[in-house]
Amino acid sequence: MHDNITLVATITARQGAREKVLLALKTVERDVQGEPGCLQYQLYMNRENDHQFMMIERWQSALMLEKHTQAAPFNTLVHAIDGMADLQVTSLTSAV
After folding, report:
1. In a domain, 6, yes or no
2. Which of 18, 29, 36, 67 is 20 to 30 A from 48, comparing alpha carbons?
3. Which superkingdom does the taxonomy of this entry point to (predicted)?
4. pLDDT at position 95, please?
5. Beta-strand pair 5-13/85-92
6. What pLDDT does 2 receive?
7. Is pLDDT of 93 > 90?
8. How far apart are CA 47 and CA 55, in angstroms?
9. Residue 46 resides in a domain
10. Within a domain: 54
11. What is the CATH number of the domain that holds 72?
């Protein structure tokens, strides 16, 4: 059994906010990659909708993910995109 946590965060920037949301996402991507327990934190853009981004996250454990949600980079992102984007987070597990 694996304790790793995999998340897909889908962030859709609202009209007129794309550049600000993208800048905030690039900043958090850079800052979070060095956090303890972070195995992957990678930003992608939907090829068919340039206002929609996906952050693929992998964490060593639920505890490391919890620490991430309390850390400054994540909280800075939350405040930076508040009111400018819609967020949906999906938690994944291995199908095997």
Report:
1. no
2. 29
3. Bacteria
4. 81
5. antiparallel
6. 62
7. no
8. 14
9. yes
10. yes
11. 3.30.70.100
pLDDT beyond 60 at 1: no
Distance CA 66, CA 62 (A): 6
> What is the arithmetic mean of pLDDT over 31-36?
95
Lookup: tokens for 66: 């919890």
Interacting residues of 7 by C-beta distance below 8 A, sequence separation 6+: 55, 56, 57, 58, 59, 65, 89, 90, 91, 92
Structure tokens at 41: 């934190």
Q: In whole angstroms, what is the distance from residue 74 CA to residue 32 CA?
A: 8
Buried b (16+ CB within 10 A) or exposed e, 1-22: eeebbbbebbbbbeeebbeebb
Pick from 8, 4, 22: which is nearest to 59 by CA?
A: 4
In a domain, 3, yes or no: no
Token digits of residue 12 = 């859709």
23 lies in which domain range? 16-92
Percent of the chain with pLDDT over 90: 93
On the question of pLDDT at 85 being above 80, the answer is yes
Other beta carbons within 10 angstroms of residue 93's beta carbon come to 9
